[in-house]
Amino acid sequence: AMAGDGGGNAEHGGSPAPQRVLFPPTFSVSEIKNKQRRHFMFLRWKQQQRKEKLAAKKKRRKEREALGDRAPPKAIPKTIENQRVYDETTVDPNDEEVAFDEATDEFAPYFNRQTVPKILITTSDRPRGRTVRFCEQLATVIPNSHVYYRRGLALKRIIPQCIARDFTDLIVINEDRKIPNGLVLSHLPDGPTAHFRMSSVRLRKEIKRKGKEPTEHVPEVILNNFTTRLGHSVGRMFASLFPHDPQFIGRQVATFHNQRDYIFFRFHRYIFRSEKRVGIQELGPRFTLKLRSLQKGTFDSKFGEYEWIHKRREMDTSRRKFHL
């Protein structure tokens, strides 16, 4: 049922006001049989919902301005992140067991400054142009990294050669139909090895308003939201790729931001406009990672022992359940 509510009158010289649709409380658009009419009424209903939401927002803003300092604090909106299901493996920085694990795990020599990172970046067998360019740009982000293009050489033969040449980490970029779609990160010589699904890869020339080429300064590393024991281990893997002492004079920062178990990588440069204002300028490349598995030791697809494997049907029981 609809009723027109006109505020003006064309006979007295005023332009007719637009008609407002009044829907009864029990109205359901899905009950309309005609497809075109149903679509039209749905659009009108959505428009009315938007107007009511905007009017309520303006009313709340005026009330807050009228109350001034006596206004109640703003309500925190509910999101998937802040409604997250509690994970019993969440890391407490003051926990003695966590401190012991950090002091004895495979990355302890790096954090104790006993080893300097040396990274080998390689690809799947016979890479295509886009993957090659991505590896070259990734090498400008990670200091002391070297690119090797595979041609028929198995990873099991590459890993002993890396260990003999004092490489601390191996990064393998996999591709499918000329598009990078996977990343394998193996810490040498004793592991662990993480396998990620890669998506949303953007090279430097594909980023709008990109800055100049990155310099050779050691960037600052920011790790966000790696809260569980698994996330803590993955975050330490990423941290061990970069030298421990950043050169802040370069104003470059590499960010690994975990949100809903998706790891977003961004590479920026700080732009200091004044003493109080600072901006950021993206340098690229950018990509998104999703952890598939964490394996003990170095890469071994047949006989490797896995610490964690993502099993969607068993693990993803709730949209608010996250593992990192």
Automatic annotation (TrEMBL):
Specify residue ranges for compositional bias: Basic and acidic residues: 63-72
Enumerate the residue ranges of region (Disordered). Answer: 1-22, 47-78
Q: Which UniProt keywords apply?
A: Ribosome biogenesis, rRNA processing
Q: Does the keyword rRNA processing apply?
A: yes
Q: Please give the SMART domains that the UniProt record associates with this protein.
A: Brix
Name the principal localization, coarsely classed: nucleus
- The answer to whether keyword Repeat applies is no
Location in the cell: Nucleus, Nucleolus
Q: Where does the record place Gly residues bias?
A: 1-11
Give the signal peptide range.
none
Q: Which GO terms describe its biological process?
A: maturation of 5.8S rRNA; maturation of LSU-rRNA
**Coiled coil regions, renumbered to chain:** none
| GO cellular component: a single term | nucleolus
One matching Pfam family is Brix
> Gene3D superfamilies, from UniProt?
Probable brix-domain ribosomal biogenesis protein
What region holds the Brix domain?
117-300
Task: Please name the GO terms that the record assigns under molecular function.
Answer: rRNA primary transcript binding
PANTHER family found in the cross-reference section: RIBOSOME PRODUCTION FACTOR 1, U3 SMALL NUCLEOLAR RIBONUCLEOPROTEIN PROTEIN IMP4
State its role. May be required for ribosome biogenesis.
According to UniProt, the name of this protein is Ribosome production factor 1
Q: Which organism is it from?
A: Tachuris rubrigastra
Q: Gene for this protein?
A: Rpf1
